[in-house]
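Narrative of activities, Objective 1.

The group set out to show that a structural description can be obtained from nothing but a protein's sequence at a throughput compatible with the screening campaign. Below is one input-output pair from the validation batch, recorded exactly as produced.
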Amino acid sequence: MDRMALDADPVAVLRRWEDSGAVWRVLNRRDDRVTVVLYQCTGGEEVDRFTSTDPALLRFLGDRRSSED
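Output recorded for this entry:
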């Protein structure tokens, strides 16, 4: 099962991911939907990914393409 499905707050997931020193990147973005990929701290290996239509997540991401922006 997708680990992201277990957490109802994708913004909290990304904040925890950043706080731990890991990297996330937007893979695909549309007006009402975004796919985010979670990478190891080195930014190399993909750990997980999720797609969401959560308005709070879309606001949190804004125009950013990654946690490194």
